[in-house]
Write a structure and sequence with these properties.
single chain, 259 residues, MetI-like fold, elongated
Amino acid sequence: MLAVITMIIPMLLMLLFSLYESPELYQSPLEFFKNIPTLTNYADIFITDTFGRYFLNSLFIAFVVTIGNVIFGSMAGYAFARYEFKGKKILFASVMGLMMVPHQVVMIPLYRMMVTFDWINTFWALIIPGLLAPFAIFLMRQYIRALPADIEDAARIDGAGELYIFFRIVLPLCKPVITVLAIYTFLGSWNAFLYPFLFTSLPEMRTLPVGLAYYIGRQSIDWGHLMAGATISALPVLILFLLFSKKIIEGLTAGALKE
């Protein structure tokens, strides 16, 4: 109960601050209730700012990155789980090693690469680096290894090709873990700040986290508009949690119990 309260109170305060103009001028919480709530902050960020473009950018990038991780992560995980090839152990060890490398370590070489490709201020720079995460390969490989291979062998005997087996047999069996991977990837991309901040300088290419950062100035913070933007930014996260919380638990539990 205490953990729930500590999570709900900041969200309620965020919503409260977003419904009043210049909330930083209020001396006590009681002053909020003496004034009438307004949606002015929400109107301002969409009318006077390019917040709608930030939202669409984040939505598009998160969607493409999620699809990429699900497809490519599943393919790579299936290859590591089912096939034997030269250098397999070394390659998988490299994948595991990449999971332990912080994003900040590759920040400078990745930025130089984006400059070389002339991808700064383009969707390529915001999508390609996250199109396949090591975690996606690891998660799919562990789950597919636990699936019985007899069905795949029977399909091969009947003349089915490898792509048919993968897309029509293996992927349908991986729905629980694919749901988990898609949700975590979407949320990670939606909340990403470092790379979008590094790779964009034009306002029309900013994502939501980067756009929200510009409400924080050197001398003051525009709390009203910042909280309104943060509330809108949190809506997809809350919706995903409410709709798929059971699926997330089922997927993680299924992956944990299979050997």
